[in-house]
Write a structure and sequence with these properties.
Strand order of the largest sheet: 2-3-1-4
Largest sheet: 4 strands, antiparallel
Shape: globular
Number of helices: 2
Helix content: 10-25%
Structural class: alpha+beta
Length: 118
């Protein structure tokens, strides 16, 4: 199932949003860990996130926070749609999933974005 998540984070304790080689303290790394713990994506850390058709709307540098960002990916279907509380339960308190929506196959969090405000 293709889902878009709206999320926020306080970035002071992170090395930016985007997963990087040899850097484990990024916001995305924490989100992917939570998705694995919730069994919404393949739990094997060696599995590439690209297999989930992952896209993000924007990126932030080390220490920068975001009130609302969007990412999209393929996740396991949850019959009751309990994505937000399930993922938030596995995330640190400074990263929150705010909302989700099922999306069509052509949606891309980066290129379908209508505006960005910095």
């Amino acid at each position: 199932m293709r889902i878009a998540f709206k999320f926020s984070y306080m970035g002071k304790d992170y090395s930016g949003l985007v997963v990087q080689e040899n850097v484990s303290d990024t916001v995305e790394a924490r989100i992917f860990d939570a998705l694995r713990k919730c069994c919404l994506i393949d739990p094997d850390p060696e599995t590439k996130i690209a297999n989930c058709v992952y896209t993000r709307c924007g990126r932030t540098d080390k220490g920068v926070s975001a009130l609302a960002n969007v990412c999209s990916l393929i996740v396991r279907h949850l019959p009751k749609g309990d994505y937000c509380s399930r993922i938030n339960h596995c995330l640190p308190p400074d990263i929150r999933i705010l909302a989700y929506a099922e999306i069509p196959p052509h949606f891309d969090a980066r290129f379908s974005c209508m505006y960005r405000e910095y």
